[in-house]
Amino acid sequence: MSHPETSSASAGPAQLTLAGMMLGLRRVSVLLPGIVVFAVAFGAAASAKGLSLLEALLMSGLVYAGVAQLVAMEIWRPEWTWGAIAGLAFVTATVNARSILQGASLQPWFARYPRLVNAFQLFVFTDANWLIGTRYRAEGGNDLGVVLGPGLCLWTVWVLATIPGYLLGSLVADPRQYGIDLVMPIFFAAMIVPLWRGRRAALPWVIAGVVALVAAKLIDGYAFIIIGALSGALAGAFLDDAA
Amino acid sequence: MTLPDPGAWGPYLVIVAMALATYLCRISGVVLMGFVPLTPRVRRGLAALPGSIVFATVLPLIERLGLAAGLALVAAILSMVLRRSELLALLVGMATVSLARAFGL
Question: A23, A114, A158, B98: least buried by Cβ within 10 Å?
Answer without folding.
Answer: A114
